[in-house]
Design a protein that fits this description.
It contains 9 helices and 9 strands. It is of the alpha/beta class. The longest helix is centred in the last third of the chain and has 19 residues, at about 200-220. It binds adenine.
Amino acid sequence: MKFYVLTLFTDMIKDGLSHSIIKRACDEGIISIETIDIRDFAKNKHRHVDDYPYGGGAGMVMQAQPVYDAYMSIKHKLSENCPVVYMTPQGKTFDQRKAESLSKLEDMVILCGHYEGIDERVIEEIVTDEVSIGDFVLTGGELAAMTVIDAVARLIPGVLNKEESFMDESFTDNLLEYPQYTRPAEFMGRKVPDVLLSGHHKNIEKWRKEQAYERTLKKRPDLLSKK
Ligand code: ADE
């Protein structure tokens, strides 16, 4: 899958996603992440890409033209139905289901805003989806874009290896993950539950299922009502 990120802070995206599993997936060519610097498309000698808002008010607004030109510079590489996702707290809240549907695509473009937002006309012209990562306001869309890329990329076949596999994880089937333990069998007087040391696979599976329900009921009862 190819990710294209339109941003004023290309290093933030490149640095943030050049570690661990995502780096390995890029190195192996399973995914690619291309950043496009919106500032490269400024037409003035100071490379400004923002201006004062019409109607007044605080802050600056990103201008339509550099954003549009940045998008047009990659348009020829995109698949026919490639979505253009604008990261904004006004968007629909991102969740595992959205990650799953995006992970099935060939490519996606992510647009990151800064300042007080982006001129509405270019949003109307190029954006297909508005996505938020939660009800809080970030200084820009980059951290949100990285969150989306990470969550989507790990669902693409081959990105996780067998050990990292995501079969039993949180939110699959709207349940949280059961508790995990590793050696030693006792830590600060706390013992690993006996069933996990029993070697009885059926009982272990049953215990894990019960734990998943119990935890979800305790920590995220809202998820159970979705089931
Ligand atoms: N940009 C600023 N805040 C954001 C949020 N909560 N989600 C997505 N993009 C954002």
